[in-house]
Amino acid sequence: MEVVIVPDAKAGGELIAAAIGRLLSHKPGALLGVATGSSPLPIYEALTAKVRAGEVDASRARICQLDEYVGLPAGHPESYRSVVLREVVEPLGLTEASFMGPDGSAEDIQAACEAYDRALGEAGGVDLQLLGIGTDGHIGFNEPCSSLASRTRIKTLTEQTRVDNARFFDNDIDQVPHHVITQGIGTILEARHLVLLATGEGKAEAVAQTVEGPVAALVPASALQLHPHATVVVDEAAASKL
Ligand code: GLP
């Protein structure tokens, strides 16, 4: 695992956007796995700026989702499908045709999970998967104690994650769904390159356990230690307990 400490979130975003630019220059149709939450926003801003400046050609890029809430009505602004379309797909000038994600409103959620897991493989696998990290060390929505071999499946959110995410739902925890679909840790580990960005002091403990602790289901992000090409980018604050 490679750990890169940058001065701030903006610098982390620039660094990772540049890496995505290099990937797209030698593989224009690369499949980019994107994460939601606040942490990756500087990456999307920097990448969008590079595309608009003509420094990066993302016109053939394909985008795929990491996770999704279950049961939000289609088109809900906080469904991760809506978020990724708004924050990544549209700014990059792409269309829904180049985007794939799990169906969180499917009648048969289990079948939707299996279909998405299969679809990722059929699409040739994820070339670069962006990850954030939860304060409890989760990646995607793989909460502590998720199997390190898990596949895309339905999970129940912990109270802590629902509290953390309530800010996207008018600070009303009752609006935060209880269930989610997430790529499993085994699924995530199949991506060719994993890039985790963590910023702010609130992530320092989770980062320290991810990088320096044992590989353990209690800290799902520690599974990155098992991956041959994992990069953890942290700002000074998130690195403060390393
Ligand atoms: C959610 C997402 C994760 C993300 C995490 C941290 O739980 N499912 O993919 O990493 O939030 O979000 P933030 O970056 O806003 O702290």
Automatic annotation (TrEMBL):
Residues 10-226 form the Glucosamine/galactosamine-6-phosphate isomerase domain. The keyword Disulfide bond does not apply. It comes from the Bacteria. Gene3D superfamilies: 3.40.50.1360. It catalyses: alpha-D-glucosamine 6-phosphate + H2O = beta-D-fructose 6-phosphate + NH4(+). It is an enzyme of class 3 (hydrolase). The keyword Metal-binding does not apply. Allosterically activated by N-acetylglucosamine 6-phosphate (GlcNAc6P). Pathway: Amino-sugar metabolism; N-acetylneuraminate degradation; D-fructose 6-phosphate from N-acetylneuraminate: step 5/5. The record marks S146, R153, K155, T156 as: Part of the allosteric site. The active site is at D67 (proton acceptor), D136 (for ring-opening step), H138 (proton acceptor), E143 (for ring-opening step). It holds the Pfam family Glucosamine_iso. Belongs to the glucosamine/galactosamine-6-phosphate isomerase family. NagB subfamily. This is Glucosamine-6-phosphate deaminase. The lineage of its organism: Bacteria, Bacillati, Actinomycetota, Actinomycetes, Kitasatosporales. The gene is nagB.
